[in-house]
C-alpha cells in the first residue's frame, strides 16, 4: 500500500508548451472574474477554496487539481466550456477517415 505521504508528494510533469496553456487558462479565468467584478476573496468564499489556491489557479499552476479549476469556472458561469475540450477532434477524425479509407480500398467492391 502506498503511504499518503508519497501520494501527496507526486505531481504531474508539465512540459513548457503545456505550462503556457495552463497559464493562459489561468489568465482567462482571472479576466472572467475581473469582468464580473469578482475578487479573490469572493471567489474563495463561493468555492470554499483558499485565496492561495485561487491565486495559483489564476497563474495556471499545474499542481492545482482540475476539479478546483472547474469549481472556479462554475462560479463565473463557465463550467460548461469544459465540455468543448476535444469536441471537434480534427486529428482523430482524420485518423479514423484514413483507417476507413484503407478498409474500402482493401474490399472487393
Structure description:
The protein is 65% helix and 0% strand. With 109 residues, the protein is mostly helical. It has a domain at 13-80: 434 Repressor (Amino-terminal Domain) (Orthogonal Bundle). Helix 2 packs across helix 4 and helix 3 packs across helix 4. It is elongated and about 60 Å long. The model has no long low-confidence stretch (mean pLDDT 89).
Question: In sequence order, what are the helices and strands, one letter per element?
Answer: HHHHHH
Number of strands: 0
CATH architecture of the domain at 13-80: Orthogonal Bundle
What do we call the CATH homologous superfamily of the domain at 13-80?
lambda repressor-like DNA-binding domains
CATH topology of the domain at 13-80: 434 Repressor (Amino-terminal Domain)
Residue share in helix: 55-70%
User: Low-confidence spans: pLDDT under 50, at least 5 residues?
Assistant: none
The chain-level structural class is mainly alpha
Mean pLDDT: 89
